[in-house]
Each structure stands twice: as C-alpha cells, then as structure tokens.
Amino acid sequence: MDYIRDNKAGIGAVAILFLSTCLYLPFIDSSRDNRLLLVGIIILIVIAGLLWKYTKTGALLLGWVAIRFYFGTSEWMGTPIYSILCLSILCLAGLWTYPKWGNIKNTICLIALFNVAFEVLQLYGIQWPLPFQVDMSSFQRGTCGLTGNPNEVSALLGMSIAMFFRKRWAYCIPFVVLGLILAQSLVGCVSAAAVFVMWSITKYDRSDAYDSLRRVVVVLCACVLLAAYAIKIDRLNIPEQVQHRGMVYLTTVKVASVKAFGWGFGQYQYVMPLFTFSGSSPAYYIDHLLSNVSDKEALEKGIKRVAGTTDIAKAREYFKNHTTPAPFDKAHNEYIEFYFATGIIGAVLGFLFMVSMLRRGFKNKDKLPVLCLMASGLSALVFFPWQVTQTAVMTISFIVMIVGGSKE
Description:
Number of helices: 18
C-alpha cells in the first residue's frame, strides 16, 4: 500500500498507456473513434481514483460516469467526454494547488464585473472588437455580457454574488444587481435572492438585535425585489411553464425510466425532441433525430411509456397534443438530464455528491464558496449551467474551495 501511495502518478500513467492501447469500446464501431474516445475514458477512471483522497462521493460519481461512457453506444458522446475530462483535470489540479489559490475570490468578482461592463455596452448597442464580440441579433431581450445568452450571464452573476459579501467588494453588489436586471432572466435572480436569504441565516446573531433586524430587512428586500422582477421584467407565467417545461421534465423522467442504467451521453438531444417537439416538426428533422438514436427498441418502449399505446395513429395524435413551441435539446434541469444519461445509479451518486459538498461547505469557517455552489445548484433546476463552460468552470472552483477549505 505504501508503494501505491508513493507512486500514484506513475501507476496512473502506466494504467492509461496499457488500457488505452489494449482495451476496446464494445459498442462503438469505428476503430479510430473507438480508441480516441477510449483514451479520455481511461483518463477519467484514473482521475476518479486520484480524487478518492479528497472526496469519496465525487470519486464514485466520476467513476460511474466513466463506466457509463465505456458502455456508451453513440459517437456523439465525444463532446461530453471532452467537457467532463477538462473539468475533472481542472478540479484535480485545483485540489493539488489549492493552498496557492490566494486571489481566486477576487478573480471571480472581476469576472462578474467584466460581464456586467459588457452588458452595459450591449445595452447601448456598442460592440467590442474580437475576441470579446458576441452576436446579439438572435436575442429577443436582455444582454449576455461575455456569455452565449442572457440566461448564462444571469446564472454566472447569481452564483458569484456571494463572493462580494466581503469588505470593499460589498460596494460593488449594486453593479451585480444591475447586471442581473439587464440580463432580464430569472435564472440568476432566484439563486441570488436565495444566497442573500441563506447568508442572513448563517450570519444571524440572536444577541445583536440591530444586526438581526438588518438581516431581516435584507431578506424581505430580496424577496420583494425578486417578486417585482418576476412580475414586471421577466414575467413568470406559471401555467405556461407547467405546460411546456413541466411537460418536458415529466416526459424526460418517463423516458429515462425505460433504461435503468441510462441512455448514455450524447443522446438527449436526439431522443427527447421526438417526444416533445415531433408534433410540429418537418419530416427531415424527424429522420435526422431517428438516425442518431442508438437504441430503437428502447425508443419504442419510451413511446409506449409516454403515450400509453403502441398504436402509431394514437401515438401520433398524442404527441400532436403534447408538444413544445421549440425543441428542447437540453432538459433545462441538470438533475433530470443527468438521470436520463446515467440512470438511477448516476442520479443517486450525483445527489450524494451534492449533499456531501453542501454539508462540508456549511461546516467550513468560510461559507462563501458553499453559498456560490448552492446558487449554482439552484440554477441547475431550471437551466444547464454545468454544460456551459463559464459557469461550469466557476462551479468547479467552488467545489475546490469547499474541499480545500475543509482541511484548513
């Protein structure tokens, strides 16, 4: 055991070299793509082993993801492998070098303010030169800063606002709130309001009446501002959300339940539009989706599970009456989409990992990272921040700070 402990990096390198040249993915036909995908999967397994020292639930979660990749049936899982591999390497590197992360909180604040500055420029129609230029022509409302759309910048600001709960940086909170308003998206506003409430609870001091009253006022103001925002700026139409987004959530869960170990990565964008958007889709789009579904037998079971019938005419009629105005190629709920990809085992491990991180974070002396992670987790209920590079990288940094802080 001492030899393994002292030579983990070397053993990992040998394992990567041996397994990536001798193993073969069982359900991917192309030999070149097979081995190309396999290298990333083997590295994920090695990283999972190295993470065991820092977070056992995280190691188990990543290990299950790697296993699910290994038994994947679609070559479209290449992008998810790349994304998860990069984030895993970043997480491991961060845990190794955490004691030197002196200015990371200030960096997160600067990133948020940088995005707000670009939102202000976009508000007045000013486009910054490349590489900071963003095409705003496709947005109906709101600004996006340096992200891809208003929901993304809203999520980024919502999960970073807790880092401003420090001396000097607190004076910049109004600028972050301005950025949330300019984005015109409730995604970050809800998580930011929740952060204000939780921060007030964790800082509550029963012996200081004035401080307690001040925090109660902060909570009430956050709730009132959130309600006003939902009514006047980004109007929250609950019946419409239930009809469209709620239908997508429920349908995804039903389809996911057909395969106990999940559909695998790279399948959601082809499978689920068939269940939620096919009623108003052209034939060529349906053919494109069907050609990329790797398990046609499971697809038939899913149709029966959702529509309640195997009769083609009745099923077609059902989907015509249960459709969304636009294709949901993402679930807009990270937990449900992860369950779809990895099955019940992945869902349980993901839940345990999130709970363990929140518990460790709230036990730490420094509560700011866990407040940020909480905001990220709340955004994941209605959006996909862990599939967006900027917000995914920031979420990893929060996890690193929580795990690193628990050892201080």
